[in-house]
Specification:
The complex is a heterodimer of chains A (525) and B (333). By secondary structure, chain A is of the alpha+beta class. Among the domains of chain A are: 132 residues, Dipeptide-binding Protein, domain 1, CATH 3.90.76.10; 215 residues, Dipeptide-binding Protein, Domain 3 (Dipeptide-binding Protein, domain 3, Roll), CATH 3.10.105. Chain A contains 17 helices and 19 strands. In chain A, helix 10 runs antiparallel to helix 12 and helix 16 packs antiparallel against helix 17. Chain A is globular and about 70 Å long. The two termini of chain A are 23 Å apart. Chain B contains 14 helices and no strands. In chain B, helix 7 crosses helix 9 and helix 9 packs across helix 11. The chains are: A alpha+beta (525), B mainly alpha (333). Chains A and B meet through strand 8, helix 8 and helix 14 of A and helix 2, helix 5, helix 7 and helix 13 of B.
């Protein structure tokens, strides 16, 4: 937190009164009059689709968070999992059966949210195989989700899955009847839902233009009720140019910016009279994906040489002006499961040369695939290139747009040797940073590093079966240490969140999963 | 009749030009190191699913067969489906077209209305202080980078004088209407507050685009008028007592505009292809941004569709310029 007084201003009195326990009901209050107008957010990327089941990212999360609901929802910082569309859950002793009881909620067309809608939503995710599909596919098989009655829905998992509750917020519930009415050629209503909405969320879609963004009006009938102050309309605009977003905020055309504003602009805006900055530790770690199966990177000494050849201090403190914090492992240090006092790598060319001397096979020129349009990715690539050149390792940097890089990820032949990128928080559980992206069962899916380690697999498999956090935590701590010891990736830093808001904004409840874009809490003074 | 013959001859070449364009772009786009089937299937799809989708999309066929199918589809007005938005590319282009056309139209209108008279006056007052000042202005117009000029305008008119919005096409979402041109739709519905809002949003991007266009028009008009003033028919008309104002504005200008008209066509064609930088700075939801996004996302179908649109626009503008040349210069008939 960079500025206590400013943060309190942003959070407002409701934000400071928070204290809900995990899996508790969040802030339901009786509806009172108090609309405070329209709130415009300038986002760094466009909203090319509104279908909640085909995208799974932070950049477009606003449409999902505000137009749709799920059985449970992440809120606040530290992230807490709250009952949402569901009012309670019964988990069988073997942790294979999850039975949810729904509360009285209505879709925007006035029809009730039923168990059948939940079943349809899960089946739709499994059929489309997009978005958050990978979170569920390993344990939820098509046809196994049942509507016991109108208010009771039951998931039968094929194996224990400790993070099932943690990933459920990405199972957005759509109005089955409405979507079915627009299905064409077995598309599960995809063409229609990309341009329309069928949700029960806090806001109801008013306008949508993929080239501009979307606006939505408050849904008075939302099951959570509303506080004394609220927004009448929220508008999210895709503004690609950072200067336009910043100038628009300073001029008062926007009320907030997304959480990806470059730090130099954040520093500049700190002195502006009508801007307030909310700074929070985030849960997004930057690292290099290392292709662990391709020689010479299949040799742990080669990978260690890479890790010793990167100037962490120079990158964080000089290039990024200290706006982020060193994170020696892949799990953010602010997350449980991150080992304490983890001895990560330092920039030490002598150790790099010593590790390099132990490499058995020939050392060829390595390819670093940087992300075009993400300056930090390119800077990290050049810094590593510089460090490796000093120990005699040649590299070439290939800068390509994210979709081009993404298309090659998971393909053992096509994927580059090294890729500097980020691992965001898609659910607040260490599995997001460990088992999901390094367990050998996830190779080609979540595991894009082709890393394989028997002990690591045992630990992360076992952690998924256990229920209690206290039992799981030491497993993830050991797993994280293995990743560092084996140099499975080159881990650099944990991001800070910098949210820029107009001074009149109140009630922001930042959550690392969603970047403060859940608009039901906010209002304008 | 000769004019119709000219149009007919130009139209005959349109299909061949378009086919050549499509073939060229199709081949180049398929050299890109990306897999449309993988993108469309999503990151979680299995290899078998991607292969099935590749087969369904015809991507497993030889390139000449893919090209043939694409040409047939384009001939039917089908440019395929955007890999990202899953909507027809033609409708994506159609939806953004009014934003780009409206911007291009007003920018050209402003450039012509200012550029032609200034060019004539500069020619008549050759080497005067006015001519020198205008030369500095026009050289600046051609030399200044559009994004820099746009940001200067934003700082001056939006941030300091608070006269215009920083970005966007309208404060809210557009007025409902049939044309998609917000200025026209707002006027038709009598919504004058929206009309003013739209004009305020138009002001800065139009000025940004009109400035270099005007500079080009001024320079070509000036050169054309200076060249024409030395013609015998000008001396003849002066000798016959034709008023100088009439000689200049009716006869000299008409003859001098042939070169300017060609430049107007080129500039207008470029604007219709999407002013990428200006649309980005002002967040104008037009075709320029669509093109950039399509390239960044490796959206083959969208890139192909956009390129064909640009080709068609240039063909249409060139045809109009040819017709305009003939109307201006009787020798062309």
């Amino acid at each position: 937190m960079e500025d206590e007084s400013r943060e309190q201003l942003v959070l407002g009195r409701r934000g400071l009164a928070l204290g809900a326990a995990t899996l508790s009901m969040v802030g339901a209050t009786p509806a009172l009059a108090g609309g405070t107008g329209k709130f415009v957010t300038a986002n760094n990327n466009s909203y090319d689709t509104l279908d909640p089941h085909v995208v799974f990212d932070i950049g477009r999360i606003a449409s999902r968070l505000n137009l749709y609901d799920a059985l449970v929802r992440w809120t606040d910082d530290p992230a807490k999992l709250n009952m949402w569309l569901a009012e309670k859950v019964d988990i069988s002793p073997d942790a294979l059966t999850y039975t949810f009881t729904l509360r009285d909620a209505k879709f925007h067309d006035g029809t009730p949210v039923t168990a059948e809608d939940v079943v349809y939503s899960m089946e739709r995710i499994l059929a489309l195989k997009k978005g958050a599909y990978g979170l569920f596919s390993s344990v939820v098989k098509p046809g196994t989700t049942k509507a016991i009655d109108a208010k009771t829905v039951q998931f039968k998992l094929s194996a224990p899955y400790a993070v099932f509750m943690a990933v459920l917020p990405e199972m957005w519930v759509v109005n089955a009847k409405m979507v079915r009415a627009h299905e064409k050629n077995g598309d599960w209503g995809g063409a229609w839902l990309a341009r329309n909405e069928a949700g029960s969320g806090s806001f109801r879609l008013a306008h949508y233009d993929p080239a501009v963004g979307f606006s939505a009006n408050r849904f008075p009938g939302h099951f959570m009720g509303w506080g004394p102050e609220y927004l009448d309309t929220v508008e999210f605009r895709g503004i690609l140019e950072v200067a336009s977003r910043v100038l628009g905020l300073e001029k008062g055309e926007f009320d907030a910016l997304d959480g990806f504003t470059p730090y130099d602009q954040i520093k500049r805006m700190r002195g502006k009279p009508n801007v307030q900055i909310l700074a929070k530790p985030s849960l997004r770690t930057m690292y290099f994906i290392i292709h662990n199966r391709r020689a010479p990177l299949d040799d742990v000494n080669m990978r260690r040489a890479l890790c010793y050849a990167f100037d962490y201090h120079g990158f964080i403190n000089n290039l990024l002006d200290g706006s982020v914090v060193r994170n020696a492992g892949i799990i953010p240090d602010t997350m449980w499961g991150a080992p304490k006092n983890l001895a990560g790598y330092t920039y030490d060319l002598d150790k790099a040369r010593a590790a390099l001397a132990k490499v058995k096979g020939p050392i060829r020129t390595l390819t670093i695939n940087a992300l075009a349009g993400y300056p930090q990715s390119g800077q990290a690539a050049e810094l590593l290139q510089s460090g490796l050149a000093k120990i005699g390792v040649k590299t070439t940097i290939l800068s390509q747009p994210w979709p081009v890089v993404a298309a090659k990820l998971g393909n053992e032949q096509l994927s580059a040797d090294l890729i500097p990128l980020w691992r965001s928080a898609y659910f607040a559980d260490p599995h997001n940073w460990t088992g999901y992206i390094y367990n050998s069962k996830q190779i080609g899916k979540g595991n894009l590093s082709f890393f394989s380690n028997k002990r690591f697999d045992e630990l992360t498999d076992k952690a998924l079966v256990l229920v209690k956090q206290a039992d799981r935590q030491p497993l993830y701590e050991e797993a994280s240490r293995i990743l560092v010891d084996q140099a499975a990736g080159l881990f650099i830093y944990n991001t800070n969140y910098y949210g820029a808001f107009d001074k009149k904004v109140r009630g922001v409840r930042y959550c690392p999963i969603g970047d403060a874009q859940d608009m039901r809490w906010q209002w304008l003074a | 009749m000769r004019l119709l013959g000219l149009i007919a001859r130009r139209l005959v070449w349109v299909p061949a030009t378009l086919i050549g364009l499509v073939v060229l772009v199709f081949v180049i786009s398929h050299l890109m190191p990306s897999d449309p089937a993988r993108i469309l299937a999503g990151e979680n799809a299995t290899t078998a699913q991607v292969a099935a989708l590749r087969h369904k999309m015809g991507l497993d066929q030889p390139l000449p067969m893919q090209l043939l199918h694409y040409l047939i589809d384009v001939a039917r007005g089908n440019m395929g489906v955007s890999l990202y938005t899953q909507t027809p590319v033609a409708s994506e282009i159609w939806r953004r077209l009014p934003a780009t056309m409206e911007l291009a139209f007003y920018a050209m209108l402003l450039a012509v209305l200012l550029g032609v008279p200034l060019g004539v006056v500069a020619a008549l007052r050759r080497n005067s202080w006015f001519d020198h000042v205008l030369r500095v202005v026009t050289v600046s117009g051609l030399a200044i980078a559009a994004f820099w000029f746009a940001i200067l305008l934003q700082l001056l008119f939006s941030m300091w004088l608070n006269l215009t919005p920083v970005q966007g096409r309208i404060s809210d979402f557009g007025p409902s209407g049939v044309t998609g041109f917000y200025t026209i739709d707002a006027a038709i519905s009598g919504d004058w507050s929206t009309e003013i809002d739209v004009l305020r949003h138009l002001a800065l991007p139009v000025i940004t685009l009109a400035f270099p266009a005007m500079a080009t028009i001024v320079r070509f008009t000036r050169a054309g008028v200076i060249g024409t003033l030395g013609s015998f028919f000008v001396d003849y008309q002066r000798a016959m007592g034709v008023p100088w104002r009439v000689t200049v504005w009716r006869y000299v200008l008409r003859s001098a505009l042939t070169g300017t008209l060609t430049q107007i066509g080129l500039v207008f064609g470029n604007l219709l292809a999407g002013a990428v930088v200006v649309e980005a700075v002002f967040d104008w939801p037009g075709l320029g941004q669509f093109a950039v996004n399509s390239i960044l996302q490796s959206d083959y179908n969208a890139i192909l569709g956009f390129t064909i649109y640009v080709g068609v626009m240039f063909i249409v503008v060139n045809l109009l310029i040819d017709v305009g040349q003939v109307l201006l210069d009787p020798r062309g008939r």
